[in-house]
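User: Assemble these into one structure.

Assistant: Restating your components, then the assembled model:
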Amino acid sequence: MQIDQAETANIEELMSRIGSGLDQFLKFKHEDCWQSEAQWRARLDVPLPMQGVGIDQVVNDLVTHVIPNGSAVPKPGFTSFITTGATSASVLASAAAGIAAPQRYHLNAFNLLEDVSLRWLASMCHIGSMEGVYSSGGSVANLLALGAARQFAFEKLGHDAGADGVHIPVHVYASAESHHTIQRSAGVLGIGRRATQVIACDSQGRMRVDALRDAIEKNRNSGIVQMAIVASAGTTNTGAIDPLKEIGEIAKENGIWFHVDGAYGLPGILDERIRHLYDGLEMADSVIVDPHKWLGASVGIAATFVRDRQLLYRAFTQEPADYLEGAVKQEAEVAPRIEHSLEGFGVPYYDYGVELSSPCRGVVVWAMLREIGVEGMTKRVKRHNDMAGYIAMAAKEHPNLELLLEPTLSICCFRYVAPGIDDLDSFNRQLHRRLIRENQNMPSTTKVNGKLALRPCFVGARTNQAHADALLKDVLRIGQVLADEWR
Ligand SMILES: Cc1ncc(COP(=O)(O)O)c(C=O)c1O
């Protein structure tokens, strides 16, 4: 039998070359990849090879042409979207799983860590009584939570929505600032994107409880199934936290599923100074959090938590298949009589969501939490919240800055102002373009109460106070130059 040459290669040596390339990248001395786009495109965008070059050359290409021309996202000064460079522990664990456990099922250490890390995550985020499942990101995590909500709402009517679909109009209540994956989830679940009833927010970007009450009241007795209320624990735009307690009480009074989207902001609960903002979380029927955001996991890891995973099972089971269930002992027969890891699937995560094949994500979360513990995560979250607060303070004090919204978490929305500049939206948009092109400090922009804001969102494990200082300095310097040109 012939073995592929690559499969006899020495991983230790190859990994160490990739490791050197990555260490170099992580110095962030390189220019933005777009400056040399023509070179790397010419090198990489070539016809399908009929003969392979061998793994040695592949590693060379990775180190020389691919890694140095990677994304700006891992830069510590990148504060645009809620995404970040993975920590080393996360990347190493993910590489280990790629080789040692390509699937999350079967009874082995990786399957166990799926379970252990979900429990750790729940405990760290103060939802320790809930059961979880991993998926690829907040989009899918919201989809699973709303799948459980759909199952719950229709079972109350004696109808199995997972098995039979839904034929009655449905409403999901979510604020104007909620993430648009809520709408998409509604579409995928067959209730339609327009099932989402958009509830107005107050000037701080939080769901207005009176508007929610009105919307529910208006639709009472209308024959519409009131399926879920979605609250945000940290909106994408500004980091606002909806009034969870009041919303949870409305959900309970009305027997409606209460979902909390904490994809970004749930780890904020680690900061005891703002923990009270999460009061009411204990009423949630489902909660999501994305380890690949603030916690620093490699991209592709979110967690959905529910009170009873059997609801997820009934919503998403693929139904028994001979090649699966027939191939292992049934649950009752498993431990302690199991004699081989292939005799059991472990926790059947593949029936709690929409993926059968799936990478082991638990090992990544386990590695990150084992590395720095809750204490380390708390320090990171507080550091980033402090940085947003620091920018806010500077924006209030400096005559050329204006704070547009008091930060709740690690996002601060502010803008440059100067006498004689009327069109501040266009001005700050241009300032932002220049800032990005300098390739050091890269916030995004957003609109806050109709005004264009510079919006740094601090979540990176490598991002610290020096980056908040540098961002402020750059905004003031570029703002001044631009203002002189503008007038
Ligand atoms: C609050 C919130 N929910 C959901 C999502 C979607 O997450 P993902 O990009 O991981 O699919 C995001 C993304 O930023 C988010 O901020």
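The pocket of pyridoxal-5'-phosphate is lined by residues 82, 137-139, 142, 179, 181, 232, 236, 261, 263-264, 290, 302 (CB under 6 Å).
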